[in-house]
Design goal:
Helices cover 18% and strands 28% of the residues. By secondary structure, it is α+β, with helices and mostly antiparallel strands. A hairpin with a 7-residue loop joins β4 and β5.
């Protein structure tokens, strides 16, 4: 489900007592991309159903906003804000200084993903996201 260009940089998410799985989360993959990649990091999370996935998406979006992040604006590729994404959901946001970040869902596969580009380049993040998957097996 992870695109072939990203998969070699991924490892299974390790859940611990300190960092447990979200309610309904079955598995995850943490992908630390090479230094010359378009983005720095992406995480894919597989959920048991759409309700669990959407609940986590909503919780994270509220956390970004309540934690001092910027979630309002024109949306990628111009800056923070929601993106029209068919039946799925996507939100660009800034949480740390100049990190351009995006969170999106794939409702067909119950996957929630999050990626960031630490130089604040919204256009580069958006361009990468257009092919970031997940992809059908």
């Amino acid at each position: 489900m992870i695109p072939d260009t990203i998969a070699p940089s991924c490892e299974p998410t390790e859940f611990t007592e300190t960092f447990p799985a979200e309610p309904g989360q079955l598995a995850g993959a943490d992908c630390d991309l090479p230094i010359d990649a378009q983005i720095d990091f992406v995480n894919y999370e597989l959920y048991v159903d759409q309700a669990s996935m959407d609940a986590t998406y909503d919780l994270l979006a509220r956390g970004f906003q309540n934690g001092g992040g910027t979630v309002d604006g024109p949306g990628c590729p111009e800056g923070p804000g929601p993106i029209a994404n068919d039946d799925d959901r996507a939100l660009c946001y800034m949480f740390l200084v100049d990190d351009a970040q995006i969170q999106w869902t794939d409702r067909a596969h119950f996957i929630l993903a999050n990626a960031f580009h630490d130089d604040g380049d919204w256009q580069a993040l958006f361009d990468w996201w257009m092919d970031a998957g997940p992809v059908a097996p």
